[in-house]
Amino acid sequence: MTAPQPGQRIIPGLADAPDEVDVVVVGLGVTGAGVALDAVTRGLRVLAVDAHDLAFGTSRWSSKMVHGGLRYLARGQVGVAMESAVERGILMEVTAPHLTRPMPMVVPLASDVSPLQAAVTRAGLRAGDLLRRGARTRSETLPRPRRLTATETLRLVPALRPAGLRGGLLSWDGQLEDDARLVTTIARTAASHGAHVRTRARVLEADGTQVRLRDELTGEVRVVRTRTVVNAAGVWAGDLVDDVTLRPSRGTHLVLRAETLPGLGASVFAPVPGATNRFVLVLPQPDGTVYVGLTDEPVDGPVPDVPEPTEPEIGFLLDVVSAAFARPLHRDDVVGAFAGLRPLLDAGDGATADLSRRHAVLTSPNGVVTVVGGKLTTYRRMAQDAVDAAVAHAGLVAGPCRTHRLPLLGAASRAELAALEQPERLVRRYGADAGLVVASAAAATGLAPAELLAPVAAGVPVTLAELVFGVTHEGAADADDLLDRRTRVGLVPTDRELALPAAERALQLAGAPRRSGLA
Ligand SMILES: Cc1cc2nc3c(=O)[nH]c(=O)nc-3n(C[C@H](O)[C@H](O)[C@H](O)COP(=O)(O)OP(=O)(O)OC[C@H]3O[C@@H](n4cnc5c(N)ncnc54)[C@H](O)[C@@H]3O)c2cc1C
Q1: How far apart are alpha carbons 328 and 344 in whole angstroms?
Q2: pLDDT digit string, tens, across residues 56-110
Q3: Is 133 helix (H, G, I), strand (E, B) or coil?
């Protein structure tokens, strides 16, 4: 097996990065990783960088849903809804069946939901199914919605408050195994096609022909010449171009243990008491946790690197879920909490445009193309639009977009994935590359599969094999990269502490370069 070359691997820092490329991509969230993959598969020379790490920003703080666009349909935005439904289908059936799954969702019909409200919700779910059909997503991938009896509802969600429950509405949407894993897989796929993907590399300044970058490991500053720059720096995009001003709003989730709401066989829309058509989502995860979200709070002042949930937000989410479930939730049921920032585009005169519905592609007078907003679900289309704009503006010769037919590394059909004999957790997170994860970790460490595949601590399902692979194949430079982005054990601080020695061991075994300097 030949070792991958720089430009086929994800590397921390700028050592041996090219001095001249066709496209520099700023930011390695889902958008920037998508742009890197789109551009390199059109035959362009690509350098894609992140100041911190893959998925350091908003992309790791999502609800991990693959949206079909129903909420946009409800607002009459048919085009946006259809785009979401089409991209959901591509992600679930072509590009990443291994990282996505159908997610059943239940709206409980409790005594405070009037028959009229129930009929309206049911009509909405039927319209959502029409979108699915319009997008040609198979009903085997996402089954049709239907009415549940009270008994069926309680069988799916036994922890619901049974008093007054007259049934439920069941529908299906997509769920991501993990948002940061999607980003890492897109970035690794881009690198496998020859994109130079570098973490710990901050863009200090950019115009349409060059960028000034700082290697955050060494402090060295260098200039890279380029034909075009795509600014995919998320809520920080306005730091690089004068004509884009973003004003974010914070969305907070709680993390509970699965035992807190036992037997959760579906996600639940818990209605916000006193509000019409506003829900808190209760989202079971495959790793033994449940997320509860979401809030929407304006954020003033400078954009923080890592936004923090507030106690009032935590209290609000606990209260709403307590009203829908049999057992009231308490503050000590919360084992973790995280927050992400939605970009609102400052449209001047105090007005804002919410870019979380549809993305914007803006070309600045200095030639930098900024792509901002949108969703994880629509990252591929955002990347296509941004690269189209950059190619047209810079007059580049490039092939057509190929990503709608390009499976990410590890992708396979659901039947093929089900037949794999690797551990279930690894198949969920790496798909057909699960065997590569084990084999390459064994080759790098000399350890037997039994040791590599054992949970790193009691109750913590992460394995040493994943951590070693994070270093050897996914550019992880330190324990934070491993615990907070290559795996998500960091979402529960007590589990993170238990997993820390394994992360340090993986770094040592895989021979990761020690961090120094500014990072
Ligand atoms: C609370 C919340 C929940 C959400 N839930 C969902 C969901 O369930 N499903 C869905 O489809 N979408 C969801 N979204 C939307 C989705 O998460 C975002 O649209 C998406 O992650 C944005 O990705 P991005 O790559 O544009 O930005 P980011 O992920 O923020 O990436 C920007 C990157 O740029 C880097 N950067 C910044 N400045 C520089 C610089 N100068 N040099 C180099 N790098 C730089 C940062 O380090 C960062 O990694 C949610 C959003 C929020 C806020």
Answers
A1: 34
A2: 999 999 999 999 888 787 778 888 899 999 999 999 999 999 999 999 999 999 9
A3: helix
pTM of the predicted model as reported, rounded to 2 decimal places = 0.96
Q: Is 246 in the pocket of ligand 1 (CB under 6 A)?
A: no
Q: Whose CA is nearest to atom 31 of ligand 1?
A: 29
pLDDT of residue 70: 80
- The whole-number average pLDDT for the span 169-179 is 97
Eight-state DSSP code of residue 307: -
Ligand 1 centroid, distance to 307 Cα (angstroms): 12
Q: Can you point out the beta strands (E) in 418-517?
A: 455-457, 460-463
Half-sphere exposure of 354 (CA within 13 A, CB side): 10
Ligand 1 center–CA 422 separation, angstroms: 31
Q: What is the pLDDT of residue 518?
A: 30
CA of 77 to the centre of ligand 1 (A): 23
Going from the Cα of 30 to the center of ligand 1, the distance in angstroms, rounded, reads 7
Region 22-37: mean pLDDT is 98
The token duo for 291 is 């997320």
CA 51 to chain centre: 18
Please count the other Cβ atoms lying within 10 Å of the Cβ belonging to residue 438: 22
Query: What residues does 66 pair with on adjacent strands?
Result: 174
Distances (CA, A) of 268 to 186, 324, 365, 500: 30, 9, 47, 33
Ligand 1 pocket residue status of 248, Cβ below 6 Å: no
* 89 CB within 6 A, ligand 1: no
Cα–ligand 1 centroid distance for 166 (angstroms): 40
Q: Give, rounded to a whole angstrom, the gap between the first and last alpha carbons of the chain.
A: 33
Q: In this model, does residue 153 exceed pLDDT 60?
A: yes
Q: Average pLDDT for residues 121-135, to the nearest whole number?
A: 94
Instruction: Find out whether 142 and 68 touch, Cβ atoms under 8 Å.
Output: yes
Give the nearest ligand 1 atom to 359 CA.
19
Average pLDDT, rounded, for the chain? 93
Q: Is the Cβ atom of 31 under 6 angstroms away from ligand 1?
A: yes
Distance 372 CA to ligand 1 centre (A): 9
Q: For residue 3, what pLDDT band results from cuts at 50, 70 and 90?
A: low
